[in-house]
Amino acid sequence: MFRSIDVDNSGTLTMEELKAGLTKQGSELAESEVLQLMEAAEVDGSGTIDYMEFLTELCI
């Protein structure tokens, strides 16, 4: 799932990639809810979600 959302193959997810990826997966979350997910998962201060953050925060 991470790879399908990471459209630029950078190894990290931006807010835009996360929102588009969740929509592509059938999610109907509001932008504010996607922002909350982003803030919860992005723990290292980089402004993006890396694979380990994705696994730790979004897949559990």
UniProtKB/TrEMBL annotation:
Signal peptide segment: none
Pfam families cross-referenced by the UniProt entry: EF-hand_7 (PF13499)
Keyword Ribonucleoprotein in annotation: no
Transmembrane segments: none
GO molecular function: calcium ion binding
Keywords: Calcium
SMART domains xref list: EFh (SM00054)
Source taxon at top rank: Eukaryota
UniProt name for this protein: EF-hand domain-containing protein
